[in-house]
Specification:
Helices cover 38% and strands 15% of the residues. It is α/β, with parallel strands linked by helices. A hairpin with a 3-residue loop joins β10 and β11. α7 packs across α8 and α10 crosses α13.
Length: 397
């Protein structure tokens, strides 16, 4: 039994951040009911990498395990009534609609908290529920661009580069997950529900705690250099370097160790805390030249022998095959009724007494509509009428 066994989560979110947060709650044992349109949630129709799957694309599959699907038309009176009845006994409600949509659909916090004062209502947005940017689209790349983070890496004079992941979505998901847990703890202590607001702009800004404080408190501006340093506020060398057959990553080495490891006497006598800051480009260029003489394996062994922080640069194939990943059980594997054998990232948090578990893979559209509605007290005749009228979809109907 997971830690959140016995809690019910209504997941009305779409795309990545909201579904990811709800999935984490499901991984901890909560009964997550994915409330989606009768045509299926948006992410079912927008496959990352163009990987469409047999019936469920990989994007949806990866973000919606441990959920049951209730397919309902929230724009209809009957559909809205279904959701409001579920709210009566729910513990958490998650939505990431654009500003004003929740109110138009009748599932805003004021409406739902009047029905269930103990409800934890998690509202996720791109920029905040109000303010000058409230109606802007909260898209990952756009938020990366506005966060300032892109201007901390790469070469001066060249276009800033985005992270290779949906970074802002993931961070926002974890903030929502954390907020929901904290609000549930408060409710356990006081009996009070509350509204939890999370937005993408604040999420990506606040994880830059050190960098932004160096700027706001220390007054040191971001200043990219001619060489592609991996961070403007860390001394050189710091970044990735080509070997004869690949790449390695190198972080804040001592120069005496570099001289010995790479047979490069030009590092001798240099003070890393002085030259590493004052002549970053020259140090970076020297490091690049020295490392290029070795294979990846040779460079790694030489640098590690001197206690220098160094790592290979992996692609996904390398990561999946890594022995530490295997030891940690980072990936979980299961068989899905339509998508076959699935291998996907699993549970990053480990509990000694209440471990996370896989109860079900991502649901098909309306796969659990009947059982969810029956548990909420709807009769078979009522369910059949709603299906016939289009307010609810049952898988196969």
């Amino acid at each position: 039994m997971g830690i959140l066994s016995g809690y019910t989560v209504l997941d009305c979110s779409i795309a990545m951040a909201g579904p990811f947060a709800a999935q984490r709650l499901g991984d901890l044992g909560a009964d997550v009911i994915k409330i989606e349109p009768v045509s299926g949630e948006w992410q079912r129709h927008a496959p990352a990498g163009g990987i469409t799957g047999n019936e469920i694309n990989v994007s949806f599959l990866s973000l919606n395990r441990n959920k049951r699907s209730l397919a309902v038309d929230l724009k209809s009176e009957e559909g809205r009534a279904v959701v409001l009845r579920l709210v009566e006994k729910a513990d958490v409600f998650i939505q990431n609609y654009r500003a004003g949509v929740a109110s138009r659909l009748g599932v805003d916090y004021d409406t739902l908290s009047a029905i269930n004062p103990k409800l934890v209502y998690v509202s996720m947005s791109g920029f905040g529920e109000d303010g000058p940017y409230a109606k802007r689209p909260g898209q990952d790349l756009l938020l990366q661009a506005m966060s300032g983070a892109m201007m901390s890496t790469g070469r001066a004079g060249e276009p800033p580069q985005a992270a290779g992941q949906y970074l802002v979505d993931a961070i926002t998901a974890y903030n929502a997950f954390e907020g929901a847990l904290a609000a549930l703890l408060h409710r356990e202590r006081t009996g009070e529900g509350q509204k939890v607001e999370v937005n993408m702009l604040d999420s990506i800004a606040t994880i830059q705690m050190q960098e932004l404080s160096v700027f706001t408190v220390g007054g040191k501006p971001q200043q990219r250099s001619a060489e592609p340093h991996a961070h403007v506020y860390i001394r050189s060398p710091y970044g990735t370097f080509a070997t004869q057959d690949g790449y390695i990553a190198l972080a804040m080495p001592n120069f005496k160790g570099m001289a010995l490891a790479l047979d490069e006497p030009r590092f001798e006598g240099l003070d890393e805390e002085t030259v590493g800051w004052e002549d970053r480009d020259a140090v970076f260029a020297l490091t690049r030249e020295a490392i290029a003489k070795f294979t990846t394996e040779d460079a790694l062994s030489r640098l590690e022998a001197q206690g220098i922080w160094v790592s290979p640069v992996y692609g996904y194939a390398d990561l999946v095959a890594d022995p530490q990943i295997a030891h940690n059980g980072t990936f979980i594997e299961y068989d899905h009724p339509t998508e076959g054998h699935v291998k996907t990232p699993g549970f990053p948090i480990r509990f000694s007494r209440t471990p996370s578990e896989l109860k079900r893979g991502a649901p098909r559209v309306g796969e659990h509509s009947s059982e969810v509605l029956e548990a909420a007290g709807f009769s078979p005749d009522e369910i059949a009428a709603m299906v016939a009228g289009g307010a609810v979809k049952v898988m196969g109907s």
